[in-house]
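dumping this here before i forget
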Amino acid sequence: MWYSIYSVGDVDIDQEHANIDFMLSVLSVDDSQFKDQIQYLVKALALHFVNEEKIADARGYNMSDGHRQEHRRVTAQLEAIMDSLQGKKVDPVTVAQNLQDTLREHILEYDRYLTAPEFF
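structure:
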């Protein structure tokens, strides 16, 4: 469920966040559908990080090196999730919850500062 607390103040970034959150909320618990959907979702998350960095650069947002490094760390985590799906039975609810938690934590710890004015 999307709440304004997760808004970063950029309509394009906020829309991508909301779309990803929606994709997470409608994941199927059927194993075959879930694996197809999660692969699409993981690709969407990785693309979102690329888009977010381009938007931040183009609009002069405060994207720190640590924020960019966090994108790389989460992308590696997503790749590990993809690898773990190969030939294994996974719990769709747990995987979806972990991805949702990761997205929300990332927004609260990094993204919400993108459009904030610098005070230092």
